[in-house]
């Protein structure tokens, strides 16, 4: 009997992608195999995101298509996982009978059992209907709802399930205790729960034993790590030091940080530990104190600048990345101008810019969404243009230099591979040798683009012969 097949699509943040890896681990341990395409799957799972309306819209649209498919394939199992499962549980259960599973992000521990139960039930239903397939929806297919249970972090991770052989993400905590008015995460993911340092070292060691050389630690407020682990001396700085000791680990990054928790111990760790990535994702969200206050971010522009000043003094090579929301309720033209000025003052290497959209269930959703859509579009475009200008200038400064990249895979341009520097800069270079993927290679930058660089691979022949030491080639 062929193994049952699943197809899992992840929406939203990196945390969701890691959750998806954990779900895949459980399903594979249960004997399931990944389907090459959705149409070949017996089980279709959507690991969803509620942070922005756009991400939700894509899931609703996908569910509409799956409803049609299920009319002729009653044995198909359709599952909604993650934040939308938590947030829209009632609607999904009452209005979408073609959905078999509704599983919140804190309940992935039993996902294989839940999927298997739904598959058995749907197979029985399909067998009964086989002689005369109905065009009617499979009403009452038996929805399984799970919104409490074992956290995904309690799953012993199958380290082989990961997107890159040399890179892995490790979730160090779940949830968030911050009160940001626009954000649904504290509702969907709950309060902060950190994993003990010993667990994280053990998991990271297993990943490195399996060939991983770059680990990115994940948390909604990753630099608040350990606040709930009283008496254990668990801080992000101490965690970085513990992981830094793994000999075969070469790069160690962490996302996403909150400005309020950028303390002296973390700054010192970043300055002292050479394996720690040379970028810090520190979302500011706005450069206006009035907007920051309205968002309840808990800091001012001045405080943000003071925090990064200490970082720049101790670790001047660390580049800053940020997120911004434009068009927050009440954001005036002057507030927006302050944000533009702030972005220029800090000189971020990279920023993600989002147009505000109200999320039901958040405090901000009760405020008038009073910045017209056209104005949000304009502010979005202006801020992106400013950031592109800054990024391009930083890329131009690299032209002529040799950088070390961890080769990640094929570039979109045929005949090229791409890799990232320790600063997270994307560099493309002419090469087709797939064996380079996962290696650290020296590349001389020859051209700066708005969001990436182009370069030429150095010592390619030596690398092919296995004699190349990338560190030696860097000047
Ligand atoms: S810090 Fe604020 S924006 Fe980030 S996850 Fe927590 S509540 Fe959301």
Explain this structure to me?
With about 475 residues, this protein is α/β, with parallel strands linked by helices. The chain folds into 3 domains: about 5-145, Methylthiotransferase, N-terminal domain (Rossmann fold), CATH 3.40.50; about 155-395, pyruvate-formate lyase- activating enzyme (Alpha-Beta Horseshoe), CATH 3.80.30; about 400-475, OB fold (Dihydrolipoamide Acetyltransferase, E2P) (Beta Barrel), CATH 2.40.50. The protein is about 35% helix and about 20% strand. The protein has 15 helices and 19 strands. The protein has helices spanning about 15-30, 55-70, 85, 90-95, 110-130, 185-190, 195-210, 235-245, 265-270, 290-295, 300-315, 335-345, 375-395, 460-465, 470-475, and strands at about 5-10, 35, 45-50, 75-80, 100-105, 145, 165-170, 175, 195, 215-220, 250-255, 280, 320-325, 350-355, 400-410, 415-420, 425-430, 440-450, 455. The strands form 5 sheets. Strands 2-1-3-4-5-6 form a 6-stranded parallel sheet, with helices on both faces. Helix 7 (about 195-210) runs parallel beside helix 8 (about 235-245) and helix 8 (about 235-245) runs parallel beside helix 9. Bound molecules: iron/sulfur cluster. The site of iron/sulfur cluster has 9 residues, from helix 6.
What are the SSEs and their pairings?
Elements: E1 5-10, H1 14-29, E2 33-34, E3 43-48, H2 53-72, E4 77-82, H3 83-87, H4 89-95, E5 101-103, H5 111-129, E6 144-146, E7 167-171, E8 173-174, H6 185-189, E9 193-194, H7 197-209, E10 214-218, H8 236-244, E11 251-255, H9 264-272, E12 279-281, H10 289-295, H11 301-314, E13 319-326, H12 333-346, E14 350-355, H13 373-396, E15 402-410, E16 416-420, E17 426-430, E18 440-448, E19 453-457, H14 460-464, H15 470-473
Parallel strand pairs: 1-2, 1-3, 3-4, 4-5, 5-6, 7-10, 10-11, 12-13, 13-14, 17-19
Antiparallel strand pairs: 8-9, 15-16, 15-18, 16-17, 18-19
The protein binds iron/sulfur cluster (SF4).
Residues 176, 178, 180, 183, 185-186, 220-221, 258 line the site of iron/sulfur cluster.
